[in-house]
Amino acid sequence: MLTFFRNVGRGILFSNLFIAACAFSLVWQTYLLLQLPVQLWLAWLAFLATFLIYNLDGLLPYKFNQNIVISERKLWLVHHRSLLLESISLAGIISFYLFIRHGQTDHVWFIAHLVIISLLYSLRIIPQKNGTFMPLRNVPLVKVFLIAYVWSCVTVILPLQTVNLPIFTLETGVLLLRRFSFLFALTLLFDIRDFEKDRITSTLTFPGLFGVRLTKVFSLFLLLIFAVLTYFTEKGNVLLSLELSAVIAALVVWFSHEKRSDYYFLILADGMMLLQFFLVYLAVSSSIS
């Protein structure tokens, strides 16, 4: 029985279902924070698109030829490659249907630029002096900015667009900055996790340039920005829930280092997004009741 649950847990984590659930939860959270009716189709679209993009990234052929230690996750991907390819094909079809069914023409160009960034993130298309090509993620220090930017746009701007609210307002800007700071802080942890791999593949990241300790300090500073902005823009139980999520995330940052198990980052670092959603959901529910 224990083996069964362990295999199920690995499948949820390594297949990117867990991170896709995080995208789902952050979209829902935005509607809760702004007291708007939840558009579940967009949350599901974010879930499916995240599942598709992350698995495409993980299944790229060149990643299996890198001169790095094959991780448990990479081995799992190799063994379940066919199933994942079928799953992401289905996810792509359903995503397309959801957008055609519910999306609006004004969203096309905004979504298109996010899709382009997500694809360029992993594909080797940027020419180098030696005649080879590299993905956008290998451009020095760019990776974390791109991830935080795309996630912030998907989970803040798109929900506003679906209910035809203006996106160029002070309230939207602060919410976007809050979300960006929180996500940037978490994303830096994966640079810490990948410190050795990025060093082998000559990818310059924050830990590679400034060291792991300073990267953690910067991550904590970003969480402080999130906490301060939240303090001045929220109140009551919602404020407490968001501040609590920042404190717990800070503890995850504090105890992180490059030797930590992959599970630490996949469950705790990514899990901070789900935790924040559940705390906000409980806070909003208690306010209504």
From TrEMBL:
Keywords per UniProt: Membrane, Transmembrane, Transmembrane helix
Protein name (database record): UbiA family prenyltransferase
PROSITE patterns in the record: PROKAR_LIPOPROTEIN
Residue spans crossing the bilayer: 12-34, 40-62, 83-101, 107-126, 138-160, 172-190, 210-232, 238-256, 263-284
Coiled-coil stretches noted in the UniProt entry, renumbered to this chain: none
